[in-house]
Write a structure and sequence with these properties.
2 domains, alpha+beta, 40% strand, elongated, 18% helix, 15 strands
Length: 341
């Protein structure tokens, strides 16, 4: 023990010698006051309680950011008004309108297996597109879009990577089965973030989160990360503020969803976010939806036609399940041929 005691004495002497010359105070991000940790069982129950919301409708502002066609670190931004309808397990309908042109722009439905998209504006591009959305098509990157021979791909950019389930998974939070198929654990995490009310002395703050990990065991026995849920312990009620999903069993980030600006959902005891930001970094796009709180209806009775979209106006038909050029309407093939000339 004597060598250790001598080392402590030497360290104390050195510290006392240099403290007046070398020590100076520096600004560090202050910790926001955090609530007590939430037991893991309660976090799981909170996720599963979202099953109380079986359907809802709302008016919304929709913004899409295309990172693949932007240049010099910018993204192309598209904005419109819309109406959204959701129903469990994964049904969705989105109607998009543009006040500037006083016209409906698009209408999309999906029942979890197939999707239909009707494009009404601009008139020269009116089209009815449909296909199986469960079969994830190959992701398009910036180079693919640049070299694509198909005119649809160049016009669509990163929007060609959008699938209905990317949106439904953000709104219709899937439960965590308690039958042993999935495993889960939690950790405490501190993140340094921009101060929402910055001052000259404090531009950054430190938030405390409870993070719930959900894992799935593959046939080979290995565990794969599937989802992460972030609960903010610095906010009242410790709300769910972020959901991340992972793909392919290799940890690849699928969606990173951030929930902001909460309000209470009547008759459920749940909190819903007005602003939902869906980031798909490996697909090259983001979607932000800002709900009109006064228009939100929880668990309304929906007619059987709510998720049916037919080509009643006999627009150009594009079947994405058909391979190659067969899926491209004749009119588009002729337009592409003339443009090439």
């Amino acid at each position: 023990m004597k060598p250790l005691r001598n080392f402590a004495i030497i360290l104390a002497i050195l510290t006392g010698t240099v403290v007046s010359d070398c020590v100076r105070k520096v600004q560090v991000p202050p910790d926001l006051k955090a609530r007590a940790p939430v037991p893991i069982e309660e976090l799981v129950n909170r996720i599963n309680s979202y099953e109380k919301i079986t359907s809802f409708t709302a008016q919304t502002d929709i913004y899409v950011f295309d990172h693949l066609t932007g240049e010099d670190g910018t993204a192309n931004r598209y904005g419109a008004n819309g109406a959204i309808v959701f129903a469990r397990p994964d049904k969705i309908r989105i109607k998009v309108s543009a006040p500037v042109v006083n016209s409906g722009v698009a209408d999309m439905t999906s029942d979890g297996e197939r999707f239909c998209l009707a494009i009404y504006w601009p008139k020269e591009d009116r089209m009815y597109i449909h296909g199986a959305n469960l079969n994830e098509l190959r992701r398009m990157n910036a180079e693919d879009i640049k070299e694509a021979k198909d005119p649809r791909v160049k016009e669509a950019g990163a929007l060609a990577n959008i699938r209905p389930q990317h949106i439904t998974d953000a709104f219709i939070i899937k439960p965590i089965p308690l039958d042993g198929r999935l495993e889960y654990f939690k950790e405490e995490d501190k993140e340094v973030e921009p101060n929402p009310k910055p001052t000259r002395k404090s531009r950054l703050i430190s938030r405390t989160y409870d993070v719930l990990y959900v894992l799935e065991r593959a046939e080979n026995g290995r565990l794969h990360l599937r989802r992460k849920f972030w609960f903010d312990r610095t906010r009242e009620g410790v709300p769910l503020v972020r959901q991340q999903t992972f793909e392919n069993g290799d940890g690849r980030l699928g969606s990173d969803v951030v929930y902001e600006d909460f309000f209470s959902v009547p008759n459920t005891g749940l909190a819903m976010a007005r602003t939902i930001k869906i980031s798909r970094p490996n697909d090259g796009y983001d979607i932000q939806l800002v709900l009109n709180q006064d228009s939100v209806e929880i668990n309304p009775e929906l007619p059987a036609t709510a998720f049916v979209l037919e080509n009643r106006e006999h627009m150009k038909d594009m079947d994405l399940d058909r391979s190659g050029r067969e899926s491209i309407p004749v009119e588009l093939r002729e337009r592409a041929r003339s443009n090439h000339k």
